[in-house]
Amino acid sequence: MGSITFIEHNGNQHKVDIEEGSSLMQAAMDNSVPGVDADCGGECACGTCHVIVDKNWVSVIGNTTEIETQMLDMTPEKADTSRLSCQITVTEAMDGMVVRLPEFQM
Amino acid sequence: MNFLSSIVEKSASLTSMPAIVEKATSLVSIPVIVEKTSKVIPLPLQIKGIHLFLKAKNKVWKSKSVPVFIESPIPDVSTLAIEDIDVSNPFLFKQNMWESYFKRLRDECPVHYQKNSPFGPFWSVTRYKDIVFVDRRHDLFSAEPIIVIGDRPEGMAIETFIAMDPPKHDIQRKAVQNVVAPKNLLEMEDLIRSRAVDVLDNLPIDEPFDWVEKVSVELTARMLATLFDFPYEHRHKLAYWSDVIAASPETTGGECSADEMFIGAAEMAEYFTRLWREKEAKKEAGEEMGYDLISLLLSNEKTKNMINKPMEFMGNLALLIVGGNDTTRNSMTGGVLALNEFPNEFIKLKNDPSLIPNMVSEIIRWQTPLAYMRRVAKEDVELNGKTIKKGDKVVMWYVSGNRDERSIDQPDQFMIDRKKARNHLSFGFGIHRCMGNRLAEMQLRILWEELLTRFDNIEVLDEPEYVQSNFVKGYTKMMVKLSAKT
User: Fold this and answer.
1) What residue in B sits closest to A48 (Cα-Cα)?
2) What is the overall mean pLDDT for chain A?
3) Roughly how many angstroms between the first and final C-alpha of chain A, as a whole number?
4) Does A3-100 carry CATH code 3.10.20.30?
5) Eight-state DSSP code of residue A63
6) Burial code of A38-60, b = ≥16 C-beta within 10 A, e = fewer?
7) Omega of the bond prior to B73 within 30 degrees of 0, cis?
């Protein structure tokens, strides 16, 4: 079984096992990764599961929908590879992927 | 406000009111000229001009009638036919009858049409999941032109992004959202805390007082003054303006008259125009700018000239003042009430203050200080077996969704250690989600941290008194007694 690493803004790392088919947000929640709030529970409607995907992994995570982009636009910490983790479905192809958490969720 | 700025300009050279009125009626449907005249006519004068004009017009013609609300006891919901249920009644919260009304709608008719309300026909969406659907589908449901059930008071066409659709919404929101971004809040936390501490240290012990007045209103006024770097000694003006802006009978069934609203708006424009000019002068003199709203607006390329667009300027200020006022104020009162109704939770809290952040989310859910947001269908939409027609008003009752047993475990219970307490509707979802949510949470967290270190008990002595409104779910008075910590 592969793994994905979340890196908090303060540098703390959390390696979580891949559970294929679940969302990246769920993976963070199930493993109590701090810094992901997920206020809407995965509806792409709150913006509080914001992660910044390492640029080497962008091709693996699929496309951003318009609604996701609009939600991301509302956070001042948006970066080029920002995503809402509830909109990314975890696959084995993500083994070794690194995602960073922003300083704040908003 | 729009067409009136032109009237103000003309009125200077006109002598009789009927003449003004005649000129004006030919302009009636018009979003005009504000941008041009705003540079010529000071904003407060424009607002006063609108007010005078409307008064005159209403004397000459019968203008659109404003509903008059006279309180009578609200019947038991079980005695009504489903189609007669009208949850826009501004006394539903005031008489604390709302729970059974919304429960019946959720159970029997979750997407409900009321065709004869004083605010016109509207749909009520009452289940959690349906509300999330409507809120996130801004492509199907428009937030324009206003997010309360009733229509805008005549002449008060201020522009605020909470009631705009993309792309304009996105641009305007981005321009101001940094003010309440967590990074900025960090800069303000100490000041907000010290101002809160000052209030709490001066509360009477062992004698009854009104929590709403002495704590909730006072703390929110201080916080707003901090956020705006507003003259501290005049901070109560902020709370007053917020009250009059949000409380007109035609929008929410509130108790404020159009006269009060216009006078309040004009006064607010005057204060804030002055504040803007002072900060602008500071900036031009090369002084260091603060973290307050106006300094941030002045420092941003996109917003540094916002004062030249008065409808936008007023709209953004009004939104931030109203948004930061009623909501937090009533959650500050609601939390105390909830802990009195569920005394075991108070014990739990005292034993484990680390529950405060989770409790804050639970308070915001339990209180739901703004009961709903309104949308208008942009096309025919099927929802839970009903067809909402293009152009229909759709009201998302957050207050009901937050008590929906289909989505929330034991929703009528107040549980400070509730799992997934953050999954509530009070901030809304989608692009209009509350921008100040982190500020609200911070203020409530600070309040409870400081309360727990000082007081052993906050006893609610009487039934609280509630606000007359279908929108603001809040309190006008709640008598309490504090016991000091031994």
Assistant:
1) B422
2) 95
3) 33
4) yes
5) P
6) bbbbbbbbbbbbbbbbeeebeee
7) no
> Is residue B36 in a domain?
yes
CB contact under 8 A, A43 and B423: no
Query: Minimal Cα–Cα distance from A42 to chain B, Å?
Result: 10
How high is the pLDDT of residue B16? 35
Q: Are residues B86 and B17 in the same domain?
A: no
For the cut 90, the answer to whether the pLDDT of residue B279 exceeds it is yes
SS3 B387: strand
Confidence class for position B56, pLDDT limits 50, 70, 90: low
Q: Quote the distance between the C-alpha of residue A51 and its chain's center.
A: 4
How far apart, in Å, are the Cα atoms of A6 and each of A1, A11, B429, B466?
Answer: 17, 9, 26, 46
CA distance B222 to B192: 8
CATH label of the domain that carries residue B163 = 1.10.630.10
Helix (H, G, I), strand (E, B) or coil at B123: strand
Does residue A3 surpass a pLDDT of 90?
Answer: yes
In chain B, the N- to C-terminal Cα span, in Å, equals 56
Interchain contact A60–B (C-beta under 8 A): no
Selection from B15-24, B272-281, B387-396 with the highest mean pLDDT? B387-396
Structure tokens at B406: 């289909």
What pLDDT does B201 receive? 97
* Omega before B182 within 30 of 0, i.e. cis: no
Overall domain count for chain B: 2
φ/ψ of residue B235, rounded to 5:
-60, -25
Highest mean pLDDT among A19-33, B156-170, B308-322: A19-33
Chain B nearest-CA distance from A94, in A, is 28
Q: Please classify residue B88 by burial: count the beta carbons closer than 10 Å to its beta carbon, then call 0-12 exposed, 13-18 middle and 19+ buried.
A: buried
A–B interface: beta-carbon pairs under 8 A: 56
B51/B130 same-domain check: no
Checking DSSP bridges between strand A98-100 and strand A3-7, what pairing results, if any? parallel
Residue B1 has pLDDT above 50, yes or no: no
Q: Give domain status of residue B219, yes or no.
A: no
Category of B170 on φ-ψ map: left (φ > 0), alpha (ψ -120 to 50) or beta: alpha
- Per-residue pLDDT of B110-153, as tens digits, reads 999 999 999 999 999 999 999 999 999 999 999 999 999 998 77
Q: Which domain holds residue B81?
A: 75-209+307-486
The answer to whether residue B332 sits within a structural domain is yes
Distance from CA of A36 to the nearest CA of B (A): 11
Residue B227 falls inside a structural domain: no
Would you call A46 and B173 a contact, using CB atoms and an 8 Å cutoff?
no
Q: Average pLDDT in the B27-43 region?
A: 45
User: What's the confidence (pLDDT) of residue B63?
Assistant: 54
Cβ of A104 and B427 within 8 Å?
Answer: no
How far away is chain A from the Cα of B293, in angstroms, using its nearest Cα? 16
- Position B293 confidence tier, pLDDT thresholds 50, 70, 90: confident
A40, A70, A106: residue with CB nearest B429 = A40
